[in-house]
Amino acid sequence: MTFDTIIRGGTVATASDTFRSDVGISAGRITTLGLDLGAARQVIDATDRLVLPGGIDSHVHISQPNAPGIVMADNFESGTRAAAFGGNTMVLPFCLQERGQSLRQAVRDYHAKADGNCYVDVSFHLIISDPTEQVLGQDLPALIKDGYTSFKVFMTYEDLALSDRQILEVMSVARETGALVMVHAENFDAIRFLTDRLERAGKTAPHFHGTSRPIPVEREATHRAIALAELIDVPVMIVHVSNREAMEEIRRAQQRGLKVFGETCPQYLVLTEKDMEGLNMEGAKYVCSPPPRDAASQVACWEGLLHGVFSVFSSDHCPFRYDESGKLAPRGRTSFRWVPNGIPGIETRLPILFSEGVSKGRIDLNRFVALSATNHAKTYGLYPRKGTIAVGSDADIAIWDPKREVTISQQILHHGADYTPYEGLRVTGWPMTTLVRGEVIVSDGALAGSKDHGQHLARDISSFAPPSRPE
Ligand code: URP
Ligand code: ZN
Ligand code: ZN
Q1: Whose C-alpha lies nearest to ligand 1, atom 9?
Q2: CA of 59 to the centre of ligand 2 (A)
């Protein structure tokens, strides 16, 4: 048998095992694992390298509409290219329904932006900002059936926040359909109150963004989101958790047997609120929500990753340029309130987790694979097609040089932002080659694929969180 591709001489790791094996690939799938596989049209030498499931980044924002005059720094072409350079083979961007907009139209709009422009595979989550009768009764159930099996609700932000009642209503749709609800958990009223008070005191610089949304704001909303999910008996994912108190809410719920899942992100492992204290507007480069906290919160997030409170590690890539189109938009200079929330991180998520986690001995390689790929696939209905190295799975593979030392800098990245919040961070371990369904997209650090290779995938319901069906 002649394979399309053999990856030869590497060490394969999955979420459970690490072993020496070559990987035989045909027609975009992994067809054989073993040694001495024979002939192939293409042989990739992986000697001294790790052969890992391609990363799945299940929380990214690409080409998402923002306030007037503000544009996101990445479209699908640049965002998915950067993802591939960062060792990812699939991303799950959000499809935002703007208030007053039909949910189906929002999905059509996102497809128009993404289709034919992706280097890696994609699958959209929905964001429900306007849960009308049409959305709850028709559009959302139909879209879930069509494979958009997860959606996010916000407890904060002027144009996005849902009331508790609305959250209960959309959770009820998830209960009926098996969709997974993702929650942005911050108390909107508390943030508005604190923001108004800070502004009245003239405290408008970017670092007051952190002061306006302290830990209790996140802890309270996390507790409330879990309580609402418990009322409806529906699984829920608390996204971008930044600190111990919110993490403990999730842990307690998990110990009570609730299907509550947690996600954390690189910014909560390596940034702190001090980063927002830069001179002039520099701190705006780090403004995201929830904000980075302190060293103790970083330790807590590592504990959550190690002990499984957090099952997924995502980037929450939400890129804006440090210019008038983004972080320095005129209104943002008047108050932190108007600085667009979000930071770039699609390309640096995995090197940071690998270096700070595996290379520094905080987590083992198998947990790295689980947190970076396998659990995303299981959580969002893609497993076992995606997220593992197994016969029959898509040949979505990242080949890593575990010893390569890199200093992260804007110069070496491929995203559309003009800065990285991780400038100067030294990492050990870097993804060199990325294959998506057997096609080489990045080859030893150079672009090799094309922007029409990535496909949008319909998803099953979560295999981690099937709803408990009423008798
Ligand atoms: O600041 C952030 N995280 N912006 C992205 C939007 C969100 O809430 O995920
Ligand atoms: Zn959010
Ligand atoms: Zn986000």
Answers
A1: 316
A2: 9
Rg, Å, the chain Cα set:
21
State the residue for tokens 């932002």: 417
Task: Assess if residue 418 is contained within a domain.
Answer: no
CA distances from 137 to 26, 143, 245 (A): 43, 11, 36
**Residue 323, token pair as written in the block:** 């210019």
Q: Residue 1's pLDDT is what?
A: 82
Q: How many CB atoms lie within 10 A of CB 142?
A: 13
CATH number, domain with residue 244: 3.20.20.140
Residues 210-225: tens digit of each pLDDT: 999 999 999 999 999 9
Q: How far is CA 230 from CA 194, 198, 429, in A?
A: 29, 35, 41
Would you call 388 helix, strand, or coil by DSSP? coil
pLDDT at position 471 is 42
Structural domain that includes position 288: 54-359
Picking from 417, 275, 281, the residue whose alpha carbon sits closest to that of residue 336 is 281
Residue 397: closest CA among 365, 434, 366: 434
Q: What is the 3-state secondary structure (H, E, C) of 208-276?
A: HHHHHCCHHHHHHHHHHHHHHHHHHCCCEEECCCCCHHHHHHHHHHHHCCCCEEEEECCHHHHCCHHHH
Nearest residue (CA) to ligand 1, atom 2: 342
pLDDT digits (tens, 9 = 90+) for 113-139: 999 999 999 999 999 999 999 999 999
Find out whether 92 and 106 touch, Cβ atoms under 8 Å: no
Question: Among residues 262, 255, 407, 281, which one has the least CA distance to residue 333?
Answer: 281
Question: Which positions ≥6 away from 28 have C-beta within 8 Å?
Answer: 394, 395, 437, 438, 439
Q: Is 342 in the pocket of ligand 1 (CB under 6 A)?
A: yes
- Distance, in Å, from the CA atom of 306 to the CA atom of 417, rounded to the nearest integer, reads 31
Index of the ligand 1 atom closest to the CA of residue 152: 9
Total of domains in the chain = 1
The reply to whether 410 falls in a domain is no
d(CA 327, CA 338): 9
Alpha carbon distance 259, 464 (integer Å): 9
Whether 281 is in a domain gets the answer yes
* Distance from Cα 106 to the centre of ligand 3, integer Å: 17
Tell me the helices (H) and strands (E) count for the chain, helix number first: 14, 20
Query: pTM above the 0.85 mark?
Result: yes
121 within a domain of the structure (yes/no):
yes
End-to-end CA distance of the chain: 51
